[in-house]
Amino acid sequence: MNKQTFYTILLLNFFSIGIINSQDKKKIEIEYAGRLTIDELNYPGAKILTRDEMQQVHIVQGSINMWSDKAIYYSGENFIEAYGNVTLIQGDTINMSSKYIEYSGITQLAFASGNVVLQDPNSTISSDTLYFDRVKQQAFYKNGGTVVKDTSGTITSKVGRYYMEQKKYQFVDDVKLVNKDATINSNYFDFFSDTGYAYLYGPSTINTTESNTYTEKGFYDTKKRTGYAVKNSKINYNNRIIEGDSIYFDDTIKFASATNNIKVTDTINHSIAIGHYAEVFKAQDSLFLTKRALVVTKQENDSIYMHADKIMMTGKPENRIVRAYYNAKIYKSDLSGKADSIHSNQKTGITKLINLARFNNSDIFSTKRRPIMWNIENQMTGDTIHLISNPETEKLDSLLVFNNAFIISKDTISKTGFNQIFGIKLVGLFNDENKLRKVDIVKNAESIFYARNDKQELIGIDKARSGSISILFADGDIEEYTRYNQIDGNLYPEDEYPKNEKRLKGFDWREDERPLSVEDLFKDDEPLELTTIKGLEDYVPQDAFFDEELLERIKISGQGFIVNRAAQSIPDEDNSNENLLESSNNLNDPIWQKHDLQIKSNTVLSPNNKKDAGFITGKKNSDGYIYQIENKTTGTYLWSVWLKGNGTVRISIQKNDNSNKDYSYLDIYLTNDWKKYSVMAKKPNDGINFRCVIYAIQLEDEFSIWQPKLIELKQK
């Protein structure tokens, strides 16, 4: 024998010994049993182990220890069934108790049923049935379960998966988290037990004492009570509803901020604020808004729009104050205005248009451009303007202009001349139609009027100075006027009027600045580039717990019955289970009912390399579907189908009536590789048959389909 042959044999022997030792470690061992019996008639090849008065049956495999009142041990299959007060412990990490456990030493898969409780250092899972895969270190339930995580709260769901190494839970269907601070409901919910982080997908709500939040994609820190929402999201703060592309909230300080396409609805004062960045402090009843900020307030049968670079709303609903800063404007169908700053007090009904004091004297707007208002054909300016409404009736009442009051209206006939009134103070009254009816100019009044007779013929141009002037308007035109303590005045024929005196000192016609629509409020704004929202990653659905790797382990062990016993089996690929569906590979058969989709049969290579797979595409922007009805009304069924392609669809075992209720469903994110998808449902005996459905097929969805199959699962 040469050295190479010797070393080869030695190496093979070494690996053989390693394999044997590895297998020995996987062998289930009986550590203690009070009594051992054999019953070949009922339990062929098994040892029946029973406890005694001292202690329970004790089973060991590697780091697994199991105790029970009774156990049936199949040494040839390295498989055990444990009954009564069962406890399974893995090292110092897992402690699981139940009424019954099946455990395979080959697959290292355990199935527990009856008041199952699984504890680890981070949390506790309770369910009626639970799977525990030692190889992947995962626990899984599909018929409802509860997870308790100290201060993070209690979580219930229909389906739950625990990734122990990641300390991550993935919950599906009717998920609910409850703790002392919040109640969260969601369809898809990822939770990390060590950090308390919760990720929500699908229609979800977060209800706290401070707010109610809705989102279809969001995050919540159950420890810090902070979170954010990034899809179809809104927060309800009692009388304020906040919506936006991205919303952040902190319930510890009663604060929320929103970014991009924001809408804040005040349900009490009937106002809506929009913009692209907002901050809300609930305790202070304050709202800060910027980036094309706009506040819309309902008034009578009209609305008042207020726009500025920044808008602040403060105060309780009954005493709310709106402050608009920098390039502030208001618009109403019959009234508009512009100022450096606009303040509106909803309790007093006073809206103030003012200039802010600035140190930059080169600022043309603040030093030369006074606040301005337009009503019908009248332009009014002054150092400060007050617009007064009746808070109860919401009707415009009066107008006050302080210092350098100037009112201008274009002569409606000539279109070139201007009626002008100037004085220290202006007091205006509105009629029931919100039109300026009467104006009094008080102190140092000056005026220029285009005087006309009843036939609207120009009599002349009237220019005068007086102590004050009282004017009546009709539809923007001067109907009559009265001067008090007149100092001087002349009525000139038009052709004799001095051309250089047609404008009073301070005349400033600003028609080009007048907003004539809501869109005009924004015409002076700089172009806006919205903030990029990074947000959250899209939801990643659970891989099947019984994935290819686990199914291979089960197949090698020959212990598929561990799954069947829980009515959750995934059958072998052979035809030993009868397919209850007819024409399974001819989806054009009328037995398959279809809507808004197109089918081509036998056009795609299937997983068995035969050209017998079909191809489906959606036809319209609505939910397409295809289904076959099964006339049975009770039992446990598995509906499976092979799919590959692009898009998102849902397979379901569904009630065959108008309710479209899913007994069980699976949302599928299609890939370019063939994959078999399955759903199982235990059909209640409700007297109604069911159907196997593929639905939610949209216009952009296209996929290949092969071997749809429905089998009835029998209990062994």
Automatic annotation (TrEMBL):
Taxonomic lineage of the native organism: Bacteria, Pseudomonadati, Bacteroidota, Flavobacteriia, Flavobacteriales
Listed PANTHER family: LIPOPOLYSACCHARIDE EXPORT SYSTEM PROTEIN LPTA
Keyword hit for Signal: yes
Name of the molecule in the record: OstA-like protein
Keywords linked to the UniProt accession: Signal
Family matches, as Gene3D superfamilies: Lipopolysaccharide (LPS) transport protein A like domain
Organic solvent tolerance-like N-terminal domain segment(s): 25-186
The keyword Signal is assigned to this record: yes
